[in-house]
Structures
1.
Amino acid sequence: MQREIRILGVPMDLGTNRRGVDTGPSAVRYANLKARLEQLGHVVHDEGNVAVLNPEERAARGSDKRQHAVAAICQTVYERAVPWIADDNFAIFLGGDHSMSIGSVAAAATRGPIGMIWIDAHSDFNIPETSPSGNIHGMPVAAIIGEGPEELINIGSPGPTLKPAQIVQIGIRNLDTIERERLTRSGIHVFTMRHVDEFGIGVVARQALDRLRHLPRLHVSLDMDSLDPAEAPGVGTPVPGGLTYREAHLLMEILGDSGRVESLDIVEINPILDDRNQTAELSVGLTASLLGQRIL
Ligand SMILES: [Mn+2]
């Protein structure tokens, strides 16, 4: 199916301590995301980047609290993307760190009830009180269901963006202690790497879609650290034992075959740690698989 696709870059690393993921959108563009999608017959508009002050610029201006800056950027992402969502275009958000997704998911949810498939090594379900690092990129899923700081919860519109039953996570393999307890109580359905190992990614992908079968539209949030570091070395927080190249492609193809995915985040690519842009190239291939590329 031919789609009209809009791409928005969010060159933000304010949700993490490690510099580098702010250049993720450039790396993905360098890996020819637009041309690759055009080859599949789609009409692609690159809408450029949301303006993000880097830490030095923020310091020079007498920077406010990081959380305020992240909230303001997420609100801008939301406001830029809502008109495209209304037009029924496919939207691709290029991070930047994963806190960006508070804004992109809020925008996607303006279409009506959506399901969210969060593909990640981490569940990103901390709140400031439970986070060992204090980094906001470990908190977006909590904010999306209405837990954590008010200013992050209220992006787009006041109150929670999604209910836990609208969320499925895939690829999880690294949880903080309290985060793990909170996650098991949350009602979010989690397919850990054990599920992938035991049943195979094809079964996991179909079960994830089935869990969200009451929701006609889906948002996919792809943290590139869900992949094994051997395939995707250029990420902010690598964790061994991730999805293989083939598992990740099959997952994207099955999600794409559903015809229900309307928006996508690609986050946490860190070109400084990458090997000749391998991780960004992989992300482009995975996006193509989600949007119709098939072997035969
Ligand atoms: Mn993440």
Note: The two ends are 16 Å apart (CA to CA).
2.
Amino acid sequence: MNTSRRNFILDTGLTASGIALLSNGMSSCVSASDKVIVALIGCKGMGFTDLSAFLQQPGVICAALCDVDSNILNQRAAEVEKLTGKRPDVYEDFRKVIDRKDIDVVIVGTPDHWHCLPMVYACQSGKDVYCEKPLGRTIEECNLMVKAAQKYKRVVQVGQWQRSDPHWKNAVEYVHSGKLGRVRSARAWSYVGWKGSIPIAPDSPVPEGVNYDMWLGPAPSRPFNINRFHFTFRWYWEYAGGLMTDWGVHLLDYALFGMNQYVPKSVMASGGKYAFPGDAMQTPDTMMTIYDFGDFNIVWDHTIGIYGQNYGRGHGVAFIGEFGTLVVDRKGWEVYPETTSTSAQQGMKPVPLQPSTGKGLELHVKNFLDCIKTREKPNCDIETGAHIARIASLGNIAYRLGRQVNWDGDKQAFKNDPEADKLILANYRAPWELPKL
Ligand SMILES: NC(=O)c1ccc[n+]([C@@H]2O[C@H](COP(=O)([O-])OP(=O)(O)OC[C@H]3O[C@@H](n4cnc5c(N)ncnc54)[C@H](O)[C@@H]3O)[C@@H](O)[C@H]2O)c1
């Protein structure tokens, strides 16, 4: 870390000096001195990557870390101290972090089943929030989170950082230019070649230093099992939604954006544990979801254990047009002219790889920090994050019901489908409950 920046952080102290009221009437929690006091809830994986990106920005101070695993908490506190010269305060219970008046921003880096309550409570206490994706585990949570951000006038950035990486937007602009001709199909995929089977493991004693009941929180009570814990929680319905929501929110977001259509008429999905039938994962290792928009389809396609040969990319979005196909992923975008139809006579030229800046996360964090001062909407605002979390969730609901579902985007409800309606609900374990807003 650059020494002058380190000294700047050491020199600034930890207390925000005042609450500014900006001209548009939305209260900013950022102090007039341009310091931003940040706390991280959920410190192991992406949450700490996010915090590290925050700490690269001028004026950011990490005052507090919170985790229910004290091993991780202490390790991360030592890392922050090494980076900034000051050890943050550490907490096991996130409500104590939310109660602190000096904190401007909360980063929510917990597993999906633990995004909603810290985010809503933070909004209620006047903090702005950087919340990891998918915004909520269930549609009911997403709806409440939108309500909280709107009611308490908070700036919320959802961690879909592709929304701030310029090459994704440039790719969408190319699609919107019409040069591809009519696009009848867009395909988004995630082929996770590096991941193998998760062998079944017996339940075991809770590891020392872990508050497991607090890790479970609103999820059903059950004995500790290592497979359902750090990182691999994402393969269990009680905590997350598998690859359909994990990568789906990043990539379907751009598929919808590119097609300028946001609400499908119907959704169907098919898949299963085809690669690893007997293993410990609940969510499907192989799955396809078709979103029908009336005159075009968006297809979601995921596999675990295969890298795949979708344009040589393990993930991406392809807009398949009459004259050519544009493919975009985190590396960049390019266009392949159509060669097998009369459309090829349009004389379309290939567009070579237009590379990414490689700074998506950094730009996303910077955009959020700018917005907490201006009170403008950030690049992945709460409505955008909630919408795509709902759309990805619809894929899982269709898969779990084994049939087509029809969604009413205006009412945010299924059309005459009480069975599907049940899968919208959060169903929290007491004493946790969704706040009434
Ligand atoms: N934006 C991205 O590119 C990206 C990448 C990876 C993960 N993510 C998202 O980040 C989130 C976390 O994923 P991960 O892979 O980093 O998970 P992880 O399991 O590695 O880390 C989660 C941390 O949260 C802690 N935690 C759990 N419950 C808590 C509670 N009640 N209070 C405080 N701490 C608690 C855990 O102990 C753990 O340290 C997920 O929602 C995931 O989808 C986003």
Note: The chain has two domains: 3-163+363-382, 165-357+389-422.
